[in-house]
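Reopening closed ticket. The problem is back. First fold of the pair:
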Amino acid sequence: MSILIGAETTDILDQNSAVLVSLRYSEDGDAAVAAAIAVLGQPQNTRHQDRSNHYPEVDGSSWGGFDIVVNRYADEALLTGEAARYQPAFSVKATAAATTANITIAAADHTRVGDDLDSVAAGRPANRIHLVDALGIRSVTLELPASFPGVITDAGVDMTYGVIAHADPGSSTITDIVAPTYLFSLS
């Protein structure tokens, strides 16, 4: 079994690479968690975080290296598919190359936690790389969405949106892969 993180969906695959379940970020987050439980079993950990000025209330489920975080937007926030205001129902995060149950995890381009970020970033367009060690940011875009432009121009700054890999400041080892998120995000 394996988990493949894409810009619009995360797929859980069987040993023959057939899709067992496809978790679409624009659809119900609680249903995504239920679908993941049906295939991966009960999560090892769950967590809740209250809403802040910058982030919605969230509920997270973890399968030891793979997390699903359900976003619970305030009533006044509208879910939309428009690129400039896209608010996914949930996001995923890989913090290991495999879960504790030995289910491999990779981005759609086959990048994994533990890979070398500088090598992955080599040859990519400049607007898909954000390396500012002084601010604690080392990120690269791995995949952009197909359903809307993954490069969003906001106040003259191109921000890519999709599957993002992060490394710690001063390191080139990928520590996590998050989707969907903005390149400049530290979430």
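Second fold of the pair, where the issue appears:
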Amino acid sequence: MSLLGLSLLAQTPLPSPLPEPDTAPPVPESTAPPPVPLDGPAMFKIAGFVICTLRGPTAVERVERAQARFADVVRTAAQPRFTVELSGNNGGAILYVNGKGLLDVTPADAAANGTGRVLPIAQIWAGRLRAVLASPSVLKQLFVFSGLPERFNFAGADYQRGTGAVSDFGRFATDGTRASGPDGRERIVFWDAQLPPPYTTVYLLNRFREFIPYNRQ
């Protein structure tokens, strides 16, 4: 190569180097906690019938509280029947069963149902409650075991309550023998007259004069 060629080569600028790949660390994802989902909707049911649907962060807790209160109403009811009452206004209301507070109806409940007035929503729920609790089949379902112990001791053996009432068919008898449960209350015990003792199953009468089986453990 001539001296002139070397001189031109020396004067030609070198091409710029290719840019290095972007090695910057990735932008970290947000570490903020996700929004807490609302507990709901939660349905308050009696004997399988929906009385109301609650929404909001305390919906499940409120339904559980209402169910516990209703179970106490059934347990302490003197007779197998209910009265339903409503008190309050558009700022808040309370549903009562047999004079005991069952459920608070709040402005948030009204808003969840598309209104700013509490009382119309409370009246709807009270109406459903009255209709369900007036049903003879519901009353039987709720009170079938009411006032009866889960277990008791009879003739030296422990007996555990069965799952529902059974038909008599004219076979059940008693000589007036009584047994007491954990509540201390004595009840007349029946048995199948066609079977010899010791009895695998004995029976107590519920409030509807139905025979409830108890099985020996």
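Update: turned out to be a display glitch only; the data is intact. The chain is about 25% helix and 30% strand. The chain has two domains: 42-143, 151-216. Please close again.
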